Amino acid sequence: MPTAGWVVVGLLGFVLATWAHVVFWTRRYTRPFAPDERLMVETNDGVRVALARLRPAPDGPAGGAPVLCVHGVACNGRTFDFGPGRSLGRTLAAAGFDVYLLDLRGAGASDRPRRWAFGFFDYVERDVPAVLAAIKARTGARRVLWVGHSMGGLIGFEHLAAVDGRGAADLAALVAIGSPLNLVGTRADLRALARLMPLVRALTPVVPLGFVTRLLSPWAGRLRTYPETLFVNPAQTPGAVLRHFMVEVVHDVSRRVLDELVARLLRDRSATGRPMEAVREGLARSTVPTLVLAGAADHIAPLAACDLGAQRRACDHTWLELSVQAGAPFDFGHLDLVVGDAAPTHVYAPVVSFLLARASGCETPRAC
Length: 368
What we know:
This protein is of the alpha/beta class. The protein has helices at about 5-30, 90-95, 120-140, 150-160, 165-170, 190-195, 195-205, 210-215, 240-250, 255-265, 275-285, 305, 335-340, 345-360; strands at about 35-40, 50-55, 65-70, 100-105, 145-150, 170-175, 205, 255, 290-295, 315-320. It has one domain: 3-Layer(aba) Sandwich (Rossmann fold). The chain has 14 helices and ten strands. A hairpin with a 5-residue loop joins strand 1 (about 35-40) and strand 2 (about 50-55). About 45% of the residues are buried.
């Protein structure tokens, strides 16, 4: 066989071996996901986004107050229902909250628009209004409680900061977990990665993070070094948990969504050119109660990037730092905040307590 033929055969063999590897480990690390109910909500541009519902315990003190849980970039709603002992969603449901786990467009069971032609503000302007309206219509509540991890908190901040006052009309309270509102001055390695985006932009409309994490999943948690430590504190999140997370939760992401996050990281501006200071000023005007949790070992969302103290000084705002210095058993990393060993005690419990104290706001607004 000519040399060119052997090269073709070798390339085909490599592709088939890679495909088989990804399929095998995807099946190996995928567990059943069984919410109490699955719902689809159509947005104003015809995209259907998925909600997984966890029904409230009938005797829970929250009395069925609705909670919307919104995941971070390149993830899905299973972030909040990751299995026994690692489910903020089921902890909330046990307290009597009516919990809805959202898959934003392009993730989980939601539609993937053609050519991945959507960005961050499609989440804000299309997915969120449709979902909030559907939850309010379904439950009869006037307002909804919001829990967001990472980008899910940033989407909530955008909703609160909107000049038309929709935040106060829609939300009774907001919890942001590891959500960096001011990314300027974060780690140099993140900024270096962000500067690679022009290359990605030239090659593809979608960043195949889901494929990459499935490809690498068997080795996750084995060495416990960088870049893994960018996302977790190894003392907090076992390797087996990380392997399942990489397969069950991580998804491909639209390049346009990353463009927005990169613009905030490098220039403290939206990709549309709007200064992020406008969002911070909008949060200062909002009367919606907020709880912000941040981990001292979180290199995606450092403490200083998450602190809203300057904006929320006159309002109902709670800041919770997850660090040894502040009394936690560990310095929490980014994913530790939702699926780490100590999350039930140090994250879930204060979130439930905060929301229980404000559940009545689903019917009656609170003022600063």
